[in-house]
Write a structure and sequence with these properties.
Layout: H1 3-7, E1 16-20, E2 31-33, E3 42-48, E4 61-66, E5 80-83, E6 86-92, E7 118-121, E8 125-128, E9 145-152, E10 158-164, E11 174-177, E12 183-188, E13 208-209, E14 211-216, H2 219-243
Antiparallel strand pairs: 1-14, 2-11, 3-10, 3-12, 4-9, 4-14, 5-8, 6-7, 6-10, 11-13
């Protein structure tokens, strides 16, 4: 196996990721929220500042997201649960939309409105509680929720929207942060909601779940990485020859 194969397996298949907020990549969030796993079904939207995705170059293909349990979650998720509908949408944020300035109308947060969002996943989602690590602070991320269709991220503020029909899981507390200048969440207790709010408890507070985005770099980035390794490959080959 060559050094290139070791360092860039499959080249174009090289994965990169970003945990948002970045400050919570290895630090427990200051809150918790059932977030996208709300038992009763809901629409859940995250608005993410562009700087939080700096590790993902423009043109990269976002292909999965993942969440982690809050360190204080007890008992941990148990058994297996299926969401009959777990649809995911991504899109660039509309002009002026930031984590501190957004609309309560879900569609208005996307550039181009509802037509400007891209559905990247549809259909049911089955989750096994045993797949979510526990016992740490923070806990490790659970399994990737893989997209049916990758999303070409072009930079700028990003909107993630999840519309799910609910499941038989007891509400699981996910690691989260209170809304801030880097990430914010809004939600409604229906998978077909148009505006946020409407929970039976008017004092319901929605916090932003710590989320890991995975992506494949656009081909040009992979090519540059591969090209940068060529001198290393040559040097390694020369060293092997000298040793013989």
């Amino acid at each position: 196996m060559t050094l290139l194969a070791l360092l860039v397996p499959g080249a174009a298949a090289a994965q990169i990721s970003a945990v948002v907020p970045n400050a919570n990549a290895t630090t427990e969030g200051n809150s918790f929220d059932v977030g996208p796993f709300f038992q009763g079904g809901q629409t859940y939207q995250l608005i993410i500042l562009a700087t939080q995705l700096n590790s993902i170059p423009a043109g990269s293909l976002l292909n999965a997201i993942a969440f982690r349990l809050d360190a204080g979650e007890s008992p941990a998720l148990e058994g297996t649960s299926t969401f009959q509908r777990f649809d995911i949408f991504l899109g660039q944020a509309a002009a002026g939309v930031t984590p501190t300035s957004f609309s309560q109308n879900f569609a208005e947060n996307f550039a181009g409105g509802a037509a400007g969002r891209t559905q990247v996943r549809s259909g049911e989602l089955t989750i096994r509680g045993s797949d979510f690590p526990t016992g740490s602070s923070p806990n490790g991320f659970g399994p990737d929720i893989v997209f049916n269709t990758p999303f070409a991220y072009q930079g700028g503020n990003l909107v993630l929207e999840i519309r799910q029909s609910g499941s038989n899981f007891t509400d699981a507390e996910l690691d989260a942060v209170t809304n801030n200048s880097e990430i914010a969440a809004l939600a409604a207790p229906s998978p077909d909601a148009t505006v946020a709010g409407g929970f039976s408890d008017p004092n319901t507070i929605v916090d932003a779940t710590v989320t890991r985005f995975s992506a494949v770099p656009e081909p040009g980035t992979v090519a540059l990485l591969s090209a940068g390794l060529v001198p290393l490959l040559g040097a390694a080959a020369r060293r092997r020859q000298r040793k013989r």
